[in-house]
Amino acid sequence: MKALNQLRNYLLNTLWETDTRQLSPWRARGIGVLRVMYLIGRDLATGELNLRAMSLVYTTLLAMVPLLAVSFSVLKGFGVHNQLEPILLNLLSPLGERGAEVTRQIIDFVENVKAGVLGSVGLILLLYTVISLTQKVERAFNYTWQVSQHRSMARRFSDYFSVILIGPLLIFAAISVTASISSSTLYTRLEDTAMIGWLLQSFNQTLPYVLVILAFAFIYVLVPNTRVRVRSALIGAVVAGILWQTVGWGFAELVASSPRTIAIYSAFAALFLFIIWLYISWLILLIGATIAFYHQYPERRWRESRHLRLSNRLKEKLALAAMVAIGRRYYQQQAEWTLPELAHHLNLVEQSLHPILDKLVEAQLLVRTEHDPPRYLPGRAPEKLGLLSIIECIRQADEDEIANPGRLPADPVVDEAFDNYQQAASDQLKHISLRDLVAGEPIDTDQ
After folding, report:
1. pTM for the model
2. Stretch(es) of the chain classified as CATH 1.10.10.10
3. I need a surface site. Which of 105, 134, 150, 307 has the fewest CB within 10 A?
């Protein structure tokens, strides 16, 4: 018990109070790894990652057959559709004999999916389930990366279908290249030599890990609607890939050593194990994405889980800072700000800035372009954008016919104090424009 208390004390205090800038690079990295491990454990304990993994399991069950049917059609067009079954067998290998059973059932379902039988409505529903899976995956990764803005409909359609159609070909190409190298005469001769044979054997053993890691890194870079550094994606993919292969081996051992327990579920055993393995796979994939996020943004490694709530004062200043930054680029004729760029410039997370920009766009003080990702421009010439209108936009945000100051009971004392405060602010700001702030000119409040 004493040892547990000491460990808890270290995790909650010493680990976070240590100034890594005064440590050697290796010790600083070690502290960083321990902090990320603590954060992953905290995120799992809060249950949000678990819930999203379970949601993805449900969507996967609905979309798996349509997704594989599309992949099957693509592979069939190249005459290599028979490669689909070995891929599934490899992915479901942790299920043991049950994995082969599930694979056969899925292949049977896929082969029975015929566009002519489904009709146009059925085909549309089939494609919708595929899109819904990719959309759910994007939302899960956007949550991990603290991104509130999703892809536009046009970009979703193009990105998702490029992955759905091109993905099977890339997988097949990787498998084909590996198989052709393994069956070549040179490879066979080298395999017979002592030292090189050992290296080739090691290569064969590590190849599954490498392929999984590359696939995970590809997902981490492509899926979130934000810029993910390749190095961060690779670090998250290495941890997730090793974890996935290791847990898969452990899961297979557990299945093999529990025949009586599995027998209890009888005909449902295959489905039961398949759902559990799907959940574990999605959870590991999300854990890897979380590691990539914390590696890319070390400043977001907070000991306590934070749901940022901005004060009214900070919202007003943030709106002004955002408008001035956008106005400066407008006058300097530079590329307009995107949400991620502006959030980074203002040292805030995107979720905090996005609602502010939305309110400014609704008030037509800003314009959101149709670019992907969207960019922001002043809604009208900065000299015609009054500072008072920006402040009032934020102060009056979310007011409606049900919740507004006019519905409060009349109180002469309160009303007078509030009106005086409003009037004083108006008198100070009414002659100041956004252009004055952008130009950095002295502000004369006595006009």
Report:
1. 0.70
2. 312-439
3. 307
